[in-house]
Design a protein that fits this description.
Structural class: mainly alpha
Order of helices and strands: HHHHHHHHH
Distance between the termini: 36 Å
Largest sheet: none
Number of domains: 2
Number of strands: 0
Oligomer: single chain
Strand content: under 5%
Helix content: over 70%
Shape: flat
């Protein structure tokens, strides 16, 4: 373990952070890393890293959906489902891509944040109906998670915290959309006013400050 840590110390700090999180990580943890790696790939336009991140998310997607269904059936007091057996993730391809990816510079992060902010704001404006469909909101969540990663890497902890909360709300919306039951649909629709208000508040408050500070 000591030699492994020593190796990580020689890497770019972001790479070291992601590799450490991948090592022995759960399905949930590995998917989180893959999303951060995807944000990195978009910032530096690194196709191999983007491909590896997408591959790991695809590898673990079905298991994650089973986990979500089990959790929400419990939360909504629906017919119980057997607890899913979770696979052992194989993040080796993503780990290799992270080690070869170009380091992220501050200018690249700021530019990526600005692009993602503009994209997210446009996505939000397209979702402002009373009860938006799940697919556009899910795409918006991907953008929000990118913004969260960029804010974290830029040292904007408060912005990252706000974005994390938005990501959780959007994640709940997507999870509930997977459940074909009246109670889940009602729960999802009931949450829309607060969700849309929170998104609107973010894009209004941070519209003049797209550096993530």
């Amino acid at each position: 373990m000591a030699s492994k840590n020593k190796g990580l110390e020689r890497l770019d700090p972001i790479a070291a952070e992601l590799l450490a999180a991948l090592d022995g990580g759960s399905v949930h943890q590995c998917r989180k890393v893959a999303k951060k790696a995807d944000a990195w790939a978009k910032a530096c336009r690194c196709k191999p890293l983007a491909k590896a991140a997408k591959g790991l998310k695809k590898q673990l997607g079905a298991a994650r959906n089973r986990q979500v269904l089990h959790y929400w059936h419990q939360q909504l007091a629906l017919a119980p489902l057997a607890e899913p057996k979770m696979p052992v993730p194989d993040p080796s391809a993503l780990a290799a891509a992270i080690k070869k990816a170009p380091p992220l510079e501050a200018d690249a992060l700021l530019s990526a944040y600005s692009r993602a902010f503009c994209k997210g704001r446009a996505q939000y404006r397209a979702c402002r109906g009373k009860h938006p469909k799940s697919e556009p909101l899910h795409r918006l969540r991907s953008t929000i998670k990118q913004l969260e990663a960029y804010s974290e890497w830029l040292g904007a902890a408060q912005t990252a915290k706000v974005l994390n909360g938005l990501g959780q709300q959007l994640g709940d919306d997507h999870d509930l959309s997977l459940i074909d039951h009246k109670i889940a649909r009602q729960r999802r629709r009931a949450a829309h006013p607060a969700l849309l208000a929170a998104l609107g508040a973010f894009f209004t408050a941070y519209g003049e400050n797209r550096g993530g500070r």
